[in-house]
Amino acid sequence: MPVFSPGTPGALSGIRVLDFTFVMSGPYCTRLMADLGADVIKIESKHGDLTRNRPPFRDGRSSYYAALNCGKRSLVLDLKSPGARAVLHELVKQVDVVVENFRPGVMKRLGLDHPTLSAINPRLVYCAISGFGQGASGNGKGAYAPTLHALSGFDRATASYQPGRERPPNTGIFVADVLGGSLAFGAIQSALLQRQRTGRGDLVDVSLLDAMLSLLVCELQESQFPEQPRHFVYEPTRARDGWLMVAPTTQDNFAALCEATGHREWLADPRFATGGGRQQYWSAFLAELDGWAGQFSVTECERLLDAHKVPCSRYLDVAEASRLPSVTERGTRCEVDDGAGRFSIAGAPFRMNEGNAGPRAHLPALGADAHAILGELLKMSPAQIADLQDAGAVGRAQADG
For the whole model, what pTM was predicted? Predict the structure, then answer.
């Protein structure tokens, strides 16, 4: 996938976004919008997004921050300053979308909540991402991906699939943030489409807890009907030199698996011949599959199963997965340069024939775009911007100190 220069046309070209988000859920959402050509103006404090200070680093620059914020412009504002709020109220007249992921109530205290900003710009699509939504029940409780994994039942469900494990699993992959950011991205596009019909903006209220519950499709149903058999639990199959995942989800898959392994008798075995039988005797079937796989290497197993189109995969690490032919062919890894050298980020997980969906090359230094944004959108002179900077309402570029 190519990396596009700022201003390259995309499906969201002409859409302007004020981005008040930080860390992951909100920045992931607005990064996807930037990938589609939206002009995303990231509003940061004088210390910048927390991820600017999180590794991996090269020459003091965080590739973690860059992966979530490439293609955006950075404007440093003191949100508690009346001067900064006045600037923002003027900017709101020029934008289509606001995205924020503060705790409920913070934007209201700052005079930047949906009722206030929609009164200034009735066409504004305002997206608020929070742990529990904008209702009163979640107010005051902190919400981060690891705590939401625990609270939603996700971790208990994951642990229930690991026989003999009592301690809940450790968390290092922030599912709630990426899932919530993705759902916010989709909901914003729906609100923009609705605006074409109605002429009015809307409030998009995204709950990360709701997002996690929506992920637990089977588990939510099984919690209501515990007397019913549980769905298949796919377990790793042990080959001679490692592990692979085999997932014969349909009857045709199962027949192909029997052919690939040379165990056609499984098709006649009343325990395994039907989906219902396999569900009842799943552990016994997996033991049979382990017996077959133990004769071969992981690579040999995968080659044999692939030849019969049986869904399967050996276990890879992220570096290995990023070198797969399908990843290379689609250009999923995109190289960017933030001034400390070139490195790879993941591109948008979708392609468009004409939409130019891919990372934009601009990587914002903290506060570096103040003059461009305020001069372009609010027609401020350099002297006016300097006055706001002297007053502390607008931050100077990081390089300016």
Answer: 0.93
